[in-house]
């Protein structure tokens, strides 16, 4: 039976809310079918006050073994490096994070904030927030670039704002069943099984993307056009399985007619949310998107765009939904 401890730092609890909606497997399945022993969770744990402090002390001293340490939210270091803006069980949370990470067999960062700092680390970052092993895309973060858990693994990053519940439960099952070392990670320590492909992979708008036809308004479902050309969709540049492993088992942002904002990438929120950068494609000379499909140069993109527009059939310019 694998033991699991879940703590929250600078967090909105969004990843916990998401986790509780998991279906394949569900949060209950983790306990009943996969034998995970949840030592404590801030929303689910029944222990309070001194009981929690005693349990944490037992884990840190090694009396109670810890297999999986899950951290949600940023590590808060303000003010002046003391971490006292985020106190927990009589100490700055950052001190617990350092000690618990040191005794855990595997450490999992859940959500953008724990992975790379996320929205709290956006300038001017008043809480001096960092992720466990990254600050934005710079490796290091709170635990440092060379951190390894007791099983010799770096922090396993499961990003997203929030992350999809099934990404979480499936990785926890892999770790709990002794397959942690089989989880192939990418350059940003994300499990490749989820983050090798793009949000665009499986998007129902790809035909409009190919023919360079843009939609004219949000929320049009799959009726018209692609969200890339005007509404800032980051689907071609964002590593996520959001159109392979659907949300609520039935949809995704782009299927519902809203652009992907790239929440699984360390630069999220892009452009530090400066006015005019959200839900709006950034362009050169008002025409050419500044960023395009990962792995495609600007000249290739332009050649493809011209050919796509010339080839676009009439149906690609029409409303596809007829009652
Ligand atoms: S750019 Fe966005 S909306 Fe368009 S096909 Fe790609 S993921 Fe879908
Ligand atoms: S579609 Fe994009 S912004 Fe939405 S959850 Fe997926 S990666 Fe994040």
Strand content: 5-15%
CATH architecture assignment name of the largest domain: 3-Layer(aba) Sandwich
Unique bound compounds:
iron/sulfur cluster
> What is the H/E string?
EHHEHEEEEHEHEEEEHHHHEEH
The domain count comes to 2
- What coarse outline follows from CA principal-axis ratios? elongated
CATH level 4 superfamily of the largest domain: NADH:ubiquinone oxidoreductase-like, 20kDa subunit
- Please state how the strands of the largest beta sheet are arranged side by side: 2-1-3-7-11
The CATH topology name of the largest domain reads Rossmann fold
Residue share in helices? 25-40%
Low-confidence stretches: none
Distance between the termini: 54 Å
In angstroms, what is the radius of gyration? 21 Å
Write structural notes for this entry.
The chain has 323 residues and is an alpha/beta fold. It has two domains: 191 residues, NADH:ubiquinone oxidoreductase-like, 20kDa subunit (Rossmann fold, 3-Layer(aba) Sandwich), CATH 3.40.50.700; 127 residues, Cytochrome-c3 Hydrogenase, Chain A, domain 2 (Irregular). Helix content is 25%, strand content 12%. The chain contains ten helices and 13 strands. The strands form five sheets. It has a five-stranded parallel beta sheet, with helices on both faces. Strand 9 and strand 10 form a beta hairpin. It is elongated. The model has no long low-confidence stretch (mean pLDDT 95). The site of one iron/sulfur cluster has 14 residues, from helix 8.
